[in-house]
């Protein structure tokens, strides 16, 4: 097989893979809407997914948010104040936590925990012929396995984003009192005078997009496993790598649209 044949085969494979991914995404989206109407066995899967992705990630999310908030506050209290621009620290704090690093760091936590778990779990089901068993008894795997996990990740991302904002903007203030005491009235007055609804909506939009990307990629990689059990950990690795890249690209695109529009 010549070089052109290989390139053509690779290109066709990518196109087919993209078509399959888009078809899977729209199928998941359609079944996700029906989950709230049916409330059958998939409802329990949704609750478990929210518990794992959202509730069990609260601790590490709070630690990351407070660490980031403290770092920014320290920079503002020392470096920026020396230039007479101490109030810029509040603007910097809001931009970094609510608009930029907050949603992205939350997405990284979800990717590392839930993205890997979903891909390997579904891949294990494929290898163990559980998907075939569902089909044999008339259960749609998309409705029972994919849609609840999709909704669970998206809902958890939105909740964790709000949670990150609370601990990053407010929780970090409590930690700062042990390192570099700040006036309570001055801190919260300056913070809320700069914080806008647009800042919060920006983070929520990114979290929604990241949640859709993470869940769809993880489900796609899980279902893409064929026969060998050695493909299961590979699916987890691919889910993590692809989700990282796509979330970063999506973040750059959304940021460019926000600041250029």
Shape: elongated
The biggest beta sheet, please?
Answer: none
Number of discrete helical segments: 9
Measured by DSSP, the beta-strand proportion falls in under 5%
Structure summary, number of beta strands: 0
Task: Summarize the helix and strand pattern as letters.
Answer: HHHHHHHHH
On the 0-100 scale, what is the average pLDDT? 83
Helix-strand makeup class:
mainly alpha
Which terms summarize this structure?
261 residues, mainly alpha, 9 helices
Q: How would you describe this protein?
A:
By secondary structure, the chain is mainly alpha-helical. It has one domain. Helix content is 88%, strand content 0%. The chain is built from nine helices and no strands. It has helices at 3-38, 41-53, 58-82, 88-127, 130-136, 141-179, 184-194, 197-224, 231-260. Helix 3 (58-82) packs across helix 6, helix 4 (88-127) packs antiparallel against helix 9 and helix 8 packs antiparallel against helix 9. The longest helix has 40 residues, at 88-127. The protein starts with a helix and ends with a helix. The mean pLDDT is 83.
Task: Provide the fold topology.
Elements: H1 3-38, H2 41-53, H3 58-82, H4 88-127, H5 130-136, H6 141-179, H7 184-194, H8 197-224, H9 231-260
Helix pairs in contact: 1-6, 2-6, 3-4, 3-6, 4-6, 4-8, 4-9, 6-8, 8-9
């Amino acid at each position: 097989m010549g070089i052109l044949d290989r390139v053509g085969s690779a290109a066709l494979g990518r196109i087919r893979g993209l078509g399959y991914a888009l078809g899977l995404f729209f199928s998941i989206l359609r079944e996700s809407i029906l989950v709230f109407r049916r409330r059958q066995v998939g409802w329990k899967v949704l609750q478990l997914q929210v518990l794992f992705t959202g509730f069990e990630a609260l601790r590490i999310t709070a630690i990351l948010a407070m660490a980031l908030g403290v770092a920014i506050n320290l920079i503002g209290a020392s470096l920026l104040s020396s230039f007479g621009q101490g109030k810029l620290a509040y603007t910097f704090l809001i931009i970094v936590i609510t608009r930029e690093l907050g949603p992205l760091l939350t997405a990284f936590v979800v990717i590392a925990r839930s993205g890997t778990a979903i891909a390997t779990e579904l891949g294990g089901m494929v290898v163990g012929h559980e998907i075939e068993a569902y089909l044999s008894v008339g259960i749609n795997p998309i409705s029972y396995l994919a849609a609840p996990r999709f909704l669970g990740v998206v809902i958890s991302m939105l909740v964790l984003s709000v949670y990150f904002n609370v601990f990053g903007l407010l929780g970090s203030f409590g930690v700062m009192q042990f390192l570099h005491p700040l006036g309570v009235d001055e801190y919260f007055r300056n913070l809320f005078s700069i914080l806008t609804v647009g800042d919060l909506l920006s983070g929520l939009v990114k979290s929604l997009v990241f949640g859709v990307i993470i869940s769809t990629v993880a489900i796609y990689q899980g279902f893409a496993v064929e026969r060998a059990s050695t493909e299961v950990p590979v699916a987890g690795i691919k889910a993590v790598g692809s989700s990282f890249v796509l979330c970063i690209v999506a973040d750059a695109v959304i940021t460019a649209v926000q600041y250029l529009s």
